UniProtKB/TrEMBL annotation:
It catalyses: 2 superoxide + 2 H(+) = H2O2 + O2. Destroys superoxide anion radicals which are normally produced within the cells and which are toxic to biological systems. Gene3D superfamilies: Fe,Mn superoxide dismutase (SOD) domain, Iron/manganese superoxide dismutase, C-terminal domain. Keywords: Manganese, Metal-binding, Oxidoreductase. This is Superoxide dismutase. Its main location: mitochondrion. InterPro entries: Fe/Mn_Superoxide_Dismutase (IPR050265), Mn/Fe_SOD (IPR001189), Mn/Fe_SOD_BS (IPR019833), Mn/Fe_SOD_C (IPR019832), Mn/Fe_SOD_N (IPR019831), Mn/Fe_SOD_N_sf (IPR036324), SOD_C_sf (IPR036314). One of its GO terms (molecular function) is superoxide dismutase activity. Its cofactor is Mn(2+). PROSITE patterns: SOD_MN (PS00088).
Length: 217
Protein backbone atom coordinates (compact mmCIF):
# COMPACT_ATOMS: atom_id res chain seq x y z
CA UNK A 1 0.00 0.00 0.00
CA UNK A 2 0.92 3.68 0.02
CA UNK A 3 2.19 3.61 3.60
CA UNK A 4 4.46 0.70 2.81
CA UNK A 5 5.81 2.48 -0.25
CA UNK A 6 6.39 5.67 1.76
CA UNK A 7 8.29 3.74 4.43
CA UNK A 8 10.30 1.96 1.76
CA UNK A 9 11.12 5.27 0.09
CA UNK A 10 12.27 6.71 3.42
CA UNK A 11 14.53 3.69 3.99
CA UNK A 12 15.95 4.07 0.48
CA UNK A 13 16.71 7.74 1.03
CA UNK A 14 18.62 6.87 4.19
CA UNK A 15 20.87 4.46 2.34
CA UNK A 16 21.10 6.49 -0.84
CA UNK A 17 19.79 3.89 -3.30
CA UNK A 18 16.56 3.08 -5.07
CA UNK A 19 14.07 0.82 -3.35
CA UNK A 20 12.72 -2.14 -5.28
CA UNK A 21 8.97 -1.88 -5.89
CA UNK A 22 6.59 -4.55 -7.18
CA UNK A 23 5.78 -3.51 -10.77
CA UNK A 24 2.19 -3.33 -11.95
CA UNK A 25 1.28 -5.94 -14.54
CA UNK A 26 0.52 -4.63 -18.05
CA UNK A 27 -2.61 -6.85 -18.09
CA UNK A 28 -5.11 -8.36 -15.66
CA UNK A 29 -4.59 -11.56 -13.68
CA UNK A 30 -7.14 -13.38 -15.85
CA UNK A 31 -5.86 -12.09 -19.20
CA UNK A 32 -3.34 -14.91 -19.81
CA UNK A 33 -5.97 -17.65 -19.44
CA UNK A 34 -6.29 -20.40 -20.45
CA UNK A 35 -2.48 -20.69 -20.78
CA UNK A 36 -1.90 -19.47 -17.22
CA UNK A 37 -4.76 -19.53 -14.72
CA UNK A 38 -5.80 -16.30 -12.92
CA UNK A 39 -5.20 -17.89 -9.50
CA UNK A 40 -1.57 -18.63 -10.42
CA UNK A 41 -1.00 -15.14 -11.82
CA UNK A 42 -2.38 -13.47 -8.70
CA UNK A 43 -0.37 -15.62 -6.28
CA UNK A 44 2.78 -15.44 -8.40
CA UNK A 45 2.72 -11.65 -8.78
CA UNK A 46 1.16 -10.39 -5.53
CA UNK A 47 2.73 -12.95 -3.17
CA UNK A 48 5.86 -14.57 -4.63
CA UNK A 49 7.27 -11.54 -6.47
CA UNK A 50 6.37 -9.28 -3.53
CA UNK A 51 8.36 -11.57 -1.23
CA UNK A 52 11.46 -11.13 -3.40
CA UNK A 53 10.97 -7.35 -3.39
CA UNK A 54 10.67 -7.31 0.41
CA UNK A 55 13.67 -9.61 0.81
CA UNK A 56 15.81 -7.50 -1.51
CA UNK A 57 14.96 -4.24 0.27
CA UNK A 58 15.65 -5.80 3.68
CA UNK A 59 19.00 -7.20 2.49
CA UNK A 60 20.00 -3.87 0.91
CA UNK A 61 19.14 -2.03 4.14
CA UNK A 62 21.33 -4.42 6.13
CA UNK A 63 24.07 -4.15 3.52
CA UNK A 64 24.05 -0.34 3.70
CA UNK A 65 24.25 -0.53 7.49
CA UNK A 66 27.17 -2.97 7.34
CA UNK A 67 28.91 -0.81 4.73
CA UNK A 68 28.49 2.30 6.89
CA UNK A 69 30.11 0.42 9.77
CA UNK A 70 32.88 -0.97 7.56
CA UNK A 71 31.77 -4.52 8.40
CA UNK A 72 33.16 -6.34 5.36
CA UNK A 73 32.31 -9.80 6.70
CA UNK A 74 28.65 -8.87 7.08
CA UNK A 75 28.62 -7.32 3.59
CA UNK A 76 29.95 -10.58 2.12
CA UNK A 77 27.50 -12.66 4.16
CA UNK A 78 24.57 -10.67 2.74
CA UNK A 79 25.49 -11.20 -0.90
CA UNK A 80 23.63 -14.53 -1.33
CA UNK A 81 20.41 -12.88 -0.05
CA UNK A 82 20.90 -9.96 -2.44
CA UNK A 83 21.54 -12.34 -5.35
CA UNK A 84 18.53 -14.53 -4.56
CA UNK A 85 15.98 -11.82 -3.82
CA UNK A 86 17.43 -9.36 -6.32
CA UNK A 87 17.45 -12.07 -8.98
CA UNK A 88 13.87 -12.96 -8.13
CA UNK A 89 12.84 -9.33 -8.57
CA UNK A 90 14.81 -8.82 -11.80
CA UNK A 91 13.71 -12.12 -13.35
CA UNK A 92 10.02 -11.73 -12.59
CA UNK A 93 10.02 -8.10 -13.78
CA UNK A 94 11.25 -9.39 -17.16
CA UNK A 95 8.91 -12.40 -17.13
CA UNK A 96 5.72 -10.32 -16.77
CA UNK A 97 6.60 -8.16 -19.78
CA UNK A 98 7.62 -11.22 -21.82
CA UNK A 99 3.98 -12.28 -21.76
CA UNK A 100 0.78 -10.75 -23.13
CA UNK A 101 -2.85 -11.79 -23.62
CA UNK A 102 -3.09 -14.29 -26.51
CA UNK A 103 -5.03 -11.80 -28.65
CA UNK A 104 -2.09 -9.38 -28.44
CA UNK A 105 0.60 -11.94 -29.31
CA UNK A 106 2.11 -12.12 -32.79
CA UNK A 107 5.03 -14.25 -34.09
CA UNK A 108 8.61 -12.93 -34.05
CA UNK A 109 9.42 -10.54 -36.89
CA UNK A 110 12.11 -8.29 -38.30
CA UNK A 111 15.63 -8.41 -36.91
CA UNK A 112 14.68 -10.80 -34.09
CA UNK A 113 13.16 -13.30 -36.52
CA UNK A 114 16.23 -13.10 -38.75
CA UNK A 115 18.51 -13.72 -35.74
CA UNK A 116 16.43 -16.70 -34.58
CA UNK A 117 16.50 -18.23 -38.06
CA UNK A 118 20.23 -17.62 -38.39
CA UNK A 119 21.01 -19.27 -35.05
CA UNK A 120 18.44 -22.05 -34.84
CA UNK A 121 17.16 -22.56 -38.40
CA UNK A 122 13.55 -21.70 -37.60
CA UNK A 123 11.30 -20.40 -34.83
CA UNK A 124 9.95 -23.92 -34.28
CA UNK A 125 13.46 -25.33 -33.92
CA UNK A 126 14.28 -22.62 -31.37
CA UNK A 127 11.09 -23.40 -29.43
CA UNK A 128 11.99 -27.09 -29.32
CA UNK A 129 15.48 -26.36 -27.97
CA UNK A 130 14.11 -23.86 -25.47
CA UNK A 131 11.43 -26.29 -24.28
CA UNK A 132 13.97 -29.09 -23.85
CA UNK A 133 16.22 -26.84 -21.77
CA UNK A 134 13.27 -25.56 -19.69
CA UNK A 135 11.95 -29.06 -18.99
CA UNK A 136 15.47 -30.21 -18.16
CA UNK A 137 16.10 -27.67 -15.40
CA UNK A 138 16.62 -29.71 -12.24
CA UNK A 139 14.64 -28.41 -9.28
CA UNK A 140 13.91 -24.69 -9.55
CA UNK A 141 15.24 -22.23 -12.11
CA UNK A 142 14.73 -20.39 -15.36
CA UNK A 143 15.15 -20.95 -19.09
CA UNK A 144 16.28 -18.00 -21.20
CA UNK A 145 16.67 -16.85 -24.75
CA UNK A 146 19.65 -14.56 -24.29
CA UNK A 147 21.90 -12.38 -26.40
CA UNK A 148 25.67 -12.75 -26.29
CA UNK A 149 26.91 -9.21 -26.96
CA UNK A 150 30.52 -10.26 -27.56
CA UNK A 151 29.58 -12.86 -30.19
CA UNK A 152 26.51 -10.93 -31.44
CA UNK A 153 24.38 -14.08 -31.42
CA UNK A 154 21.44 -15.62 -29.62
CA UNK A 155 21.70 -18.55 -27.21
CA UNK A 156 19.42 -20.61 -25.00
CA UNK A 157 20.69 -20.87 -21.43
CA UNK A 158 19.34 -21.86 -18.04
CA UNK A 159 19.96 -20.53 -14.55
CA UNK A 160 19.38 -22.24 -11.20
CA UNK A 161 17.16 -20.82 -8.46
CA UNK A 162 16.77 -17.05 -9.03
CA UNK A 163 20.16 -16.43 -10.66
CA UNK A 164 19.67 -13.74 -13.33
CA UNK A 165 20.39 -14.48 -16.99
CA UNK A 166 23.24 -11.95 -17.00
CA UNK A 167 25.24 -14.31 -14.74
CA UNK A 168 25.65 -16.55 -17.83
CA UNK A 169 27.12 -13.68 -19.85
CA UNK A 170 23.90 -13.16 -21.83
CA UNK A 171 21.46 -10.26 -21.93
CA UNK A 172 17.97 -11.62 -21.10
CA UNK A 173 15.47 -11.39 -23.95
CA UNK A 174 12.90 -14.04 -23.00
CA UNK A 175 12.66 -15.84 -19.68
CA UNK A 176 10.47 -18.69 -18.48
CA UNK A 177 10.04 -19.37 -14.78
CA UNK A 178 10.09 -23.13 -14.16
CA UNK A 179 9.78 -22.96 -10.39
CA UNK A 180 6.82 -25.14 -9.38
CA UNK A 181 5.03 -22.09 -7.96
CA UNK A 182 4.74 -20.83 -11.56
CA UNK A 183 2.61 -23.75 -12.75
CA UNK A 184 1.81 -26.41 -10.15
CA UNK A 185 -1.74 -25.29 -9.27
CA UNK A 186 -2.71 -25.72 -12.92
CA UNK A 187 -0.32 -28.22 -14.51
CA UNK A 188 0.64 -30.26 -11.42
CA UNK A 189 3.93 -32.10 -12.14
CA UNK A 190 3.58 -31.94 -15.95
CA UNK A 191 6.08 -29.17 -16.68
CA UNK A 192 6.18 -29.86 -20.46
CA UNK A 193 2.49 -28.87 -20.77
CA UNK A 194 3.19 -25.57 -18.99
CA UNK A 195 6.17 -24.89 -21.26
CA UNK A 196 4.03 -25.63 -24.31
CA UNK A 197 1.28 -23.26 -23.14
CA UNK A 198 3.85 -20.48 -22.63
CA UNK A 199 4.12 -19.99 -26.39
CA UNK A 200 0.44 -18.98 -26.48
CA UNK A 201 1.22 -15.91 -24.36
CA UNK A 202 4.77 -15.08 -25.48
CA UNK A 203 5.06 -11.37 -26.19
CA UNK A 204 7.50 -11.46 -29.12
CA UNK A 205 7.15 -7.70 -29.58
CA UNK A 206 8.70 -7.22 -26.13
CA UNK A 207 11.42 -9.78 -26.91
CA UNK A 208 12.19 -7.91 -30.15
CA UNK A 209 12.45 -4.61 -28.27
CA UNK A 210 14.86 -6.21 -25.80
CA UNK A 211 16.90 -7.59 -28.71
CA UNK A 212 17.16 -4.14 -30.30
CA UNK A 213 18.05 -2.52 -26.96
CA UNK A 214 20.82 -5.09 -26.46
CA UNK A 215 22.36 -4.04 -29.78
CA UNK A 216 20.98 -6.87 -31.90
CA UNK A 217 20.71 -6.13 -35.61
Amino acid sequence: GLLGRAAAAAAAASRGMATAVLPDLPYGYSDLAPAIAPEIMELHHSKHHQTYVNGLNAALDMYAEAEAKGNTQKMIALQPAIKFNGGGHVNHSIFWTNMAPPKDCAPPEGALLAAIEAEFGSVDAMKKQFAAKAVGVQGSGWAWLGYDEAKARLAIVTTPNQDPCITTGHVPLLGLDVWEHAYYLQYKNVRPDYVGAFWEVTNWKNVGERYAAAGGK
